[in-house]
Amino acid sequence: MDDLIKQTAADLAAAHHVVALTGAGISIDSGIPPFRGKGGLWERFDPMEIAHIDAFMQDPARVWDILVREMKEIVDRARPNDGHLGLAKLEQLGKLKTVITQNIDGLHQAAGNSDVIEFHGTFAWQRCMACGKKYETRRVDISQLPPRCECGGILRPDAVFFGEMIPTDALLRSRNAAENCDLMLVVGTSAVVQPVALMPVIAKDNGARVVEINPEKTPLTGEISDYLIMGGAGEVMNRLIEELEKTLR
Ligand code: APR
Questions:
Q1: Which of these, 75, 93, 84, 136, lies nearest to 113 by C-alpha position?
Q2: What is the model's pTM?
Q3: What domains sit in the chain, N to C, each tagged with a CATH number?
């Protein structure tokens, strides 16, 4: 791993427009379970049955009770870990412009990154399905499900359910970032969900270097990524920042 850390630090030092694409793996050390693989949420629930917009519309109380309540408890407690803090440090060093994240936990903003594109929306906010008013999730009273707006409308996460469109501005801004970067760090994603998994392909197609940080291989590995640093986001980011600071000195 040391050689790849050194190589990535050199790539970062030479890069002029770095973008990161992150997934659930970067938030695992903050106590947020992933979706796939060991302990994944989708090992316990069928996403199409419980995280699909049709399921929510059919029975919002049930989706709130089974999925959303648990997510609220986990996200309310979650704090950024070394993986998030490393990406924030990269921005401070002038070596990361944009984070495209699939995560809905708000931890990149909490860590200090200033340009975060939330490809799947955010769970940090709920919005009224009748009047559109937004409420901070941590302030929503869930003693009655589904929680309601002052106007009486039902509240839903400001996140993207399966079966819904990706917010257009997130999609276009992400595509623009992928088209214009010269280095993309792909951190903690299984790269199986579309269209977000297209972003590294667009970056590669535009001549960018693509570096994965993940304990496991993904469909990008060996196809799109120039190389995979096999390790946890927190540990790898700590070593990468250490190496980069030596290079920038
Ligand atoms: N550091 C980095 N990566 C890790 C770590 C870690 N400590 N631990 C696990 N991983 C990797 C796993 O190997 C896997 O590749 O994180 C990835 C998690 O994959 P998923 O759970 O599929 O998460 P993600 O890729 O973000 O899912 C994409 O699917 O259900 C939808 O909307 C949901 O945004 C989510 C999307």
A1: 84
A2: 0.96
A3: 1-32+80-120+167-249 (3.40.50.1220), 34-77+121-159 (3.30.1600.10)
Pocket test for ligand 1, best of 36, 53, 122, 221 (most atoms within 8 A of CB): 36
pLDDT in tens, 142-185: 999 999 999 999 999 999 999 999 999 999 999 999 999 999 99
User: Which residue stretches of the chain are H helix?
Assistant: 2-14, 41-44, 47-50, 53-58, 60-63, 69-77, 82-92, 107-111, 168-180, 199-205, 233-248
Query: Both tokens of residue 70?
Result: 């648990």
CA of 188 to the centre of ligand 1 (A): 5
190 CA from centroid of ligand 1 (Å): 5
pLDDT digits (tens, 9 = 90+) for 111-151: 999 999 999 999 999 999 999 999 999 999 999 999 999 99
Protein residues with CB under 6 Å of any ligand 1 atom? 23-26, 28-29, 34-37, 40, 47, 102, 120, 188-190, 193, 214-216, 218, 232-233
